[in-house]
Amino acid sequence: MKSTEQLRPQDITVKKAIDWEPVKTNVITALTFGIMGLIGGYFIAIHIHGDARAAVIQDIQIVSKEAK
């Protein structure tokens, strides 16, 4: 084996500039938490909105009873 061995082009492996594995994992994690947050917010909004609507309906009923 020669000490000054010449490298052929196929011997040179170019490392990818960006390792996409952690990026992919982070994006998936972020999307998952984002979707979970949207779903949670949606249910909370429905819950509050439903309660508020029920309270308004009760108020209307009370007012209409008093008016009679």
UniProtKB/TrEMBL annotation:
Keyword set, alphabetical order: Membrane, Transmembrane, Transmembrane helix
Superkingdom per UniProt: Bacteria
Transmembrane segments: 27-45
Protein name as annotated: Uncharacterized protein
Organism name: Pseudarthrobacter oxydans (Arthrobacter oxydans)
